[in-house]
Write a structure and sequence with these properties.
The protein is mostly helical. It has 2 domains: 84 residues, Winged helix-like DNA-binding domain superfamily/Winged helix DNA-binding domain (Arc Repressor Mutant, subunit A, Orthogonal Bundle); 60 residues, no CATH class. Helix content is 57%, strand content 12%. The chain has a 3-stranded antiparallel sheet with strand order 1-3-2. Helix 1 packs antiparallel against helix 6.
């Protein structure tokens, strides 16, 4: 069958991550490193019972680590994404990418190349403009080719960024 390989990839998606609620949790943890239980509940808008169920599923797959401690007399729960969890999330993303239509993949690649060419005129990389990357690495701007300063384009060219 012509599409059997893609269908097999879709069937092989990791069910522990592919669930929308668990995907939200893993997404947040991949960007923040660790979050406490109440922050996860607020960000995902899941009820306490639902969040606990999904966290237990992810913990059972060794994708997250749940650390329980006390602050004074109050319990405090922190959730960390483990190395296998990060690898599973990246693998899930690659599987999703492979399942996209080839024409759509090509159009995204062309947009990325076009954006990189626009930014390279100003000695920047896409990750220099990605706020989640800058938040996770506050010293990134010091490694810019421009000595840590972002060269702003002339006003008439600003729309190309």
């Amino acid at each position: 069958m012509k599409h059997q390989e893609t269908l097999n990839r879709i069937a092989a998606l990791d069910a522990a991550i592919h669930n929308p609620a668990r995907l939200m949790i893993v997404y947040l943890l991949s960007r923040q490193g660790a979050l406490d239980y109440l922050t996860l509940m607020r960000e995902t808008q899941l009820s306490s019972g639902n969040l606990t169920t999904h966290l237990n599923t992810l913990a059972g797959s060794s994708y997250i680590e749940i650390v329980k401690s006390f602050r004074g007399r109050k319990p405090h729960t922190t959730v960390h994404l483990t190395a296998p969890g990060r690898a599973a999330y990246e693998n899930w993303g690659q599987q999703i990418w492979n399942a996209l239509p080839a024409g759509f993949q090509d159009s995204i690649r062309k947009r990325i190349v076009h954006q990189e060419l626009d930014l390279s005129r100003y000695n920047l990389a896409l990750q220099d403009w990605d706020t989640s990357y800058r938040e996770s690495n506050p010293y990134r701007s010091a490694t810019l080719k421009t000595g840590g300063r972002i060269p702003w384009p002339p006003l008439e060219e600003a729309w190309t960024l």
